[in-house]
């Protein structure tokens, strides 16, 4: 992964005309940040794999010589953030070139509905690719006895941090059971902080909408033991009927060591950008995302990487596809 320190160093060199010893090469350098989530989540490591795959700064060895197969002159980097809402806001303001988002949050931002009701629409939001399903995890202490979301009433529960898509979905799931933040002892922590507090007995449960297996949850399952609480029932059935971006899902047994599987719901993780990003650049980014070298890196780099497939690159798209990415998908026959 090209980390933040390397990213800044390359930027300084580019400004000084010092990459490759030629100002012309420095001028060709392009930066492409990918907003993610907390470092213990799934967004951050997967974005790191993708950033590494699509980067090809001046001076890199050619692809056919075992070097980078990414976009010539591109330096991409995964940037930790508060999650979906924060990433979309950063894209909209120009603080980020792109970011990962839950499909529901992207749809609400683009249409000015849901949590964006009464706020300006993020009309420039565009899709690069749909990535993978994100499962709604409700994690409880081993032996908690929780059988349903309804059992959270009066309990100490972390709903994730402000700016995250998880917090949005957690409130929707609570509402499906007639609950709000006020009916629980709510906290708003990143997944790793939540896992630490659960381990120490300072929390009863926490929520994480993420691809499984998620690192902090896996570690917790292996060290302290956890239970997954099912997310199902009449309220959830009604929610699924109302919002098409939710889907029925299941976290299988032993997705986390020694933990029984449960039925739950999911949304899609999507890679989004702004219509203001150049068509040619986003075309090259999409092309680099779906080349054979990236395929190998995704398959080897993270357990969820194998589920990122070209065949589902446009699945559940609630926002328009960026014209540059659309050109690539037309070439692949995914768009007529």
UniProtKB/TrEMBL annotation:
Keyword annotations for this protein, in alphabetical order, are: Signal
Signal peptide annotation? 1-26
Q: Does the UniProt entry include the keyword Signal?
A: yes
Q: Which CDD domains match?
A: PBP2_TAXI_TRAP
The family database entries (InterPro entries) matched by this protein are listed as:
TAT_signal (IPR006311), TRAP_TAXI (IPR011852)
Q: Which residues cross the membrane?
A: none
Q: Which PANTHER family match?
A: SLL1037 PROTEIN (PTHR42941:SF1)
Q: Which NCBIfam families match?
A: TRAP_TAXI
Q: Name the chain's protein.
A: TAXI family TRAP transporter solute-binding subunit
Organism, scientific name: Vineibacter terrae
